[in-house]
C-alpha cells in the first residue's frame, strides 16, 4: 500500500466523483418526473394507461440495469438514433429509476387515506387539483425515505455506466489503475468516496424527513 | 310534514321569493351493494334553514344516504334534487351519470363534515380553510387567507391559524373542518357523525358550533348518535332502519310518540349505553 498513489490520483478521482454525482442526480430527477407520470397513469382508472405503465415497470425492474444500458446503447443506433454514451447512460438510469419511483409513489398513495381526496371532492376540487395539491404532496412525504434510498442505490448502480465509456468514478478508477498498476489503492479510494457520498445522502435524507415530520 | 313543523327561524326571516322551495328533495331513492339493499325507496324533503337529523343503528344506511346527497355515493334508482337541480345524473339524457367535473358546480354549494375530520395534514389550519377558496372559488391568496382567518375566528380558533392538524385536539380539528366548509358559503351542510370520533369532553365544543350554524339559518342534514342534539336542535328527525325511513317527524313525536318497535328498541339501547 502506497498512500502517495492515492494522493496523486485524488484530484482525478474527485473530479470523476462529481460526474457520478451529477449523472445520478439527473437520473433521479428525470426518474421522478417519469415515476410520477407513470404512477398517475396507472392510478388514473384508464385501462390502457395502466397496462402500458405496468409493462414499463415490469421491464425496467425485471431486466438488469447493465442489460438495459447496453440495449439502449446498441439498439437505438440500429433504428437510426445515434446516442452518445452519456445520453444512453442517463436515459438508462432515469428510465430504471422511474420504474422504481413510480412503485414507491404507488405505495405511498395507497397510504393516503381515502377521506383526504373525498374532502377535496366534496368541496368541488377538480381531479387535477386533488392530485397536485392533496395526493402527490402527501405521497411525496411518505416517500422521502424510499426516495433517498433509491438515490443511494442509483448512485451505486451508476458504476455500471463505466462499460459504455462514461468517465465517472468507476471508469476513471479503472483507467488510472491500468496506467499506474496500483488497483488496490485506487479502488480502495474509490470505495471510500462512494461511501462518503452515500453517507452524506443518508444524513441529508434523515434531515429532510425530520423537517417534513414537523409539518 | 305539516305546516306546523316549519322552524321558527325561517318564519321570522323575510320571505324571499323561493324561500319556500325545498333545499333537498329525495324521491324513491334506492341503492344496493350487490344483493345488499342499503337504501330502499327513500323519500325525504329538507326545507331551507331546516335541520334534519338522521338517526338509526349502525349499518342502517345513514352515511350512504347522506353521501348520495352530494353524490360521493351513486344511487341506483329514484332522484335527489338540490335547489331543484338533479344530483349526479344528466337532466337531459336519462341516467347518464355526471363526471366529477360536471359535479363541481353542485358540490361547491354543498359542504360536508366527516367523522374523521379529513383535514389535510400537510397544511396549517389556515391553509386548510383557504385552499378551496383559492382552488375552487378562485380567490387570490391574500383574500383567501383573510377570509380563512375570519372563519377560524368564527369557530373560536383564531389563535390556531398556523398550527398543523397534528397539533390540534380532535375537537379543534373538527372545528377547522367546519370552518373549511362554511368559508365556501354552502347552501346546505351535510354532517356524518361529526362528534363520533371525539373524546367525550370535546363533543360539546363541536355541537356548540353546529348549534350556532343552525341558529343562523344554515340548512343541515346531520347523521348523529347525539340524541340530545337531535332532540333540541333538529326540526325533524328521520329514523333509518335497514335502509328504510321507519319514523319521521319533529323530534318530540319521533322520540316519544312513535309506535315503531325498532325505534323504541334503538332508543332503549341508547339510553342504557349512556346511563351509568
Ligand atoms: N363501499 C361499500 N361496499 C359494500 N357495502 C357497503 C359499502 N359501504 C357501505 N356498505 C354497506 O351498506 C350498509 C349501510 O352502511 P352505512 O350507510 O355506512 O350505514 P350507517 O352509516 O348507518 O352505519 C351496511 O350494511 C354496509 O355494510
Ligand atoms: Mg355511518
TrEMBL record, chain A:
Locations listed in the record:
Cell inner membrane; Cell membrane
* CDD domains according to UniProt: TM_PBP2 (cd06261)
Q: Does the keyword Cell membrane apply?
A: yes
Superkingdom, natural source: Bacteria
Q: Which GO terms describe its biological process?
A: amino acid transport
Taking every annotated instance into account, which residue ranges of this chain make up the domain ABC transmembrane type-1?
17-205
Cellular component GO terms, alphabetically? ATP-binding cassette (ABC) transporter complex
Under Gene Ontology molecular function, one entry of this record is:
transmembrane transporter activity
Instruction: Provide the coiled-coil residue spans.
Output: none
- Report the transmembrane regions from the record: 20-41, 53-76, 186-208
Q: Which SUPFAM superfamilies match?
A: MetI-like
Keyword set, alphabetical order: Amino-acid transport, Cell membrane, Membrane, Transmembrane, Transmembrane helix, Transport
The answer to whether UniProt assigns keyword Coiled coil to this entry is no
What is this entry's stated membrane topology? Multi-pass membrane protein
The principal localisation class reads membrane
**Entries under InterPro entries matching the protein:** AA_ABC_transptr_permease_3TM, ArtM/GltK/GlnP/TcyL/YhdX-like, MetI-like, MetI-like_sf
Question: Into which family does the record put it?
Answer: Belongs to the binding-protein-dependent transport system permease family. HisMQ subfamily.
Q: What does this protein do?
A: Part of the ABC transporter complex GltIJKL involved in glutamate and aspartate uptake. Probably responsible for the translocation of the substrate across the membrane. Part of the binding-protein-dependent transport system for glutamine; probably responsible for the translocation of the substrate across the membrane.
Q: Quaternary structure per UniProt?
A: The complex is composed of two ATP-binding proteins (GltL), two transmembrane proteins (GltJ and GltK) and a solute-binding protein (GltI).
Write down what this protein is called: Glutamate/aspartate import permease protein GltK
This chain's source organism reads: Azospirillum cavernae
From TrEMBL, chain B:
Q: Name one GO cellular component term.
A: plasma membrane
| Alphabetically ordered keywords of this record | ATP-binding, Cell membrane, Membrane, Nucleotide-binding, Transport
Keyword Lipid biosynthesis among record annotations:
no
What is the topology of this protein in the membrane according to its UniProt annotation? Answer: Peripheral membrane protein
Is Ribosomal protein among the key words of this record? no
Q: Which GO terms describe its molecular function?
A: ABC-type amino acid transporter activity; ATP binding; ATP hydrolysis activity
* Compartment(s): Cell membrane
Domain (ABC transporter) ranges: 24-267
Pfam families this protein is in? Answer: ABC_tran
| Family affiliation | Belongs to the ABC transporter superfamily.
Q: What is this protein called?
A: Amino acid ABC transporter ATP-binding protein
Species of origin reads Azospirillum cavernae
Amino acid at each position: 500500500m502506497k498512500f502517495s498513489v492515492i494522493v496523486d490520483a485524488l484530484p482525478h478521482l474527485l473530479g470523476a466523483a462529481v460526474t457520478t454525482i451529477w449523472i445520478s442526480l439527473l437520473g433521479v430527477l428525470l426518474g421522478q418526473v417519469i415515476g410520477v407520470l407513470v404512477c398517475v397513469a396507472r392510478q388514473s382508472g384508464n385501462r390502457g394507461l395502466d397496462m402500458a405503465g405496468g409493462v414499463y415497470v415490469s421491464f425496467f425492474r425485471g431486466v438488469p440495469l447493465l442489460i438495459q444500458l447496453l440495449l439502449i446503447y446498441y439498439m437505438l443506433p440500429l433504428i437510426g438514433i445515434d446516442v452518445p454514451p452519456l445520453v444512453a447512460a442517463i436515459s438508462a438510469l432515469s428510465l430504471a429509476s422511474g420504474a422504481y419511483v413510480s412503485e414507491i409513489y404507488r405505495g405511498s398513495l395507497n397510504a393516503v387515506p381515502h377521506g383526504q381526496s373525498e374532502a377535496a371532492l366534496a368541496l368541488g376540487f377538480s381531479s387535477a387539483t386533488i392530485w397536485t395539491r392533496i395526493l402527490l404532496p402527501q405521497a411525496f412525504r411518505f416517500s422521502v425515505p424510499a426516495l433517498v434510498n433509491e438515490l443511494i442505490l442509483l448512485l451505486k448502480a451508476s458504476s455500471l455506466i463505466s462499460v459504455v465509456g462514461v468517465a465517472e468514478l468507476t471508469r476513471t478508477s479503472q483507467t488510472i489503475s491500468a496506467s499506474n498498476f496500483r488497483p488496490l489503492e485506487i479502488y480502495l479510494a474509490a470505495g471510500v468516496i462512494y461511501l462518503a457520498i452515500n453517507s452524506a445522502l443518508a444524513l441529508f435524507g434523515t434531515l429532510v424527513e425530520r423537517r417534513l415530520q414537523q409539518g | 310534514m305539516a305546516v306546523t313543523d316549519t322552524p321558527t327561524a325561517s318564519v321570522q326571516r323575510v320571505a324571499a321569493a323561493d324561500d319556500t322551495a325545498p333545499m333537498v328533495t329525495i324521491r324513491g331513492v334506492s341503492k344496493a351493494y350487490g344483493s345488499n339493499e342499503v337504501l330502499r325507496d327513500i323519500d325525504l324533503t329538507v326545507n331551507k334553514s331546516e335541520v334534519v337529523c338522521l338517526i338509526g343503528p349502525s349499518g342502517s344506511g345513514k352515511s350512504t344516504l347522506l353521501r348520495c346527497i352530494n353524490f360521493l355515493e351513486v344511487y341506483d334508482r329514484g332522484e335527489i334534487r338540490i335547489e331543484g337541480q338533479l344530483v349526479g345524473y344528466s337532466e337531459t339524457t336519462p341516467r347518464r351519470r355526471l363526471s366529477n367535473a360536471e359535479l363541481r358546480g353542485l358540490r361547491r354549494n354543498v359542504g360536508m363534515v366527516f367523522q374523521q375530520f379529513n383535514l389535510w395534514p400537510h397544511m396549517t389550519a389556515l391553509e386548510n380553510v383557504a385552499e378551496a377558496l383559492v382552488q375552487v372559488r378562485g380567490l387570490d391568496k391574500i383574500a383567501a387567507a383573510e377570509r380563512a382567518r375570519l372563519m377560524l375566528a368564527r369557530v373560536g380558533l383564531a389563535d390556531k391559524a398556523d398550527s398543523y392538524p397534528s397539533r390540534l385536539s380532535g375537537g379543534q380539528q373538527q372545528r377547522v373542518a367546519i370552518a373549511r366548509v362554511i368559508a365556501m358559503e354552502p347552501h346546505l351542510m351535510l354532517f356524518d357523525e361529526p362528534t363520533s370520533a371525539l373524546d367525550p369532553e370535546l363533543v360539546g365544543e363541536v355541537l356548540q358550533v353546529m348549534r350556532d350554524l343552525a341558529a343562523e339559518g344554515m340548512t343541515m342534514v346531520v347523521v348523529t348518535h347525539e340524541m340530545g342534539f337531535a332532540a333540541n336542535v333538529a326540526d325533524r328527525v328521520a329514523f333509518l332502519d335497514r335502509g328504510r325511513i321507519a319514523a319521521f317527524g319533529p323530534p318530540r313525536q319521533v322520540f316519544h310518540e312513535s309506535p315503531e318497535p325498532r325505534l323504541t328498541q334503538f332508543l332503549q339501547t341508547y339510553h342504557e349505553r349512556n346511563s351509568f
